[in-house]
Model the fold of this input.
Amino acid sequence: MGDSVRRLEQLLAYGSKEAIVQNLKDAGCNEETIHCCLACLDAGKKEELLSRLEQHRNGLLDKVHEGEKQIDCLDYLVFQIGRCSFADQ
Done:
C-alpha cells in the first residue's frame, strides 16, 4: 500500500480499505461511487475524494428535504380531513 493511501486512511481514522468500503456502503454509496472514492484514495487525490463525498452527501440531503415536503403534504391533508365533518360520525 502506498504512503499516500496509508496517510489518507490514518487521517480518516480507519485501518483498512475494507473499513472505508463498509462505511461508504453504510452511507448508501453505490458501487460506482465506491470505486471512484477508492481510486481517489489510491491516487492520493484528497480534494477529489472530498468533492465526491460532498456530492453524495448533497444527494442524500436532497432526498431528506423531499421526504420532509412529502410529510408536510400528508400533515396538511390529515389536518384538513380532521376539520371536515363526515356523515357517519
Notes: The chain has a mean pLDDT of 88. DSSP finds four helices and no strands in the chain. The chain has one domain: 3-83. Helices lie at 3-11, 17-26, 31-43, 46-83.
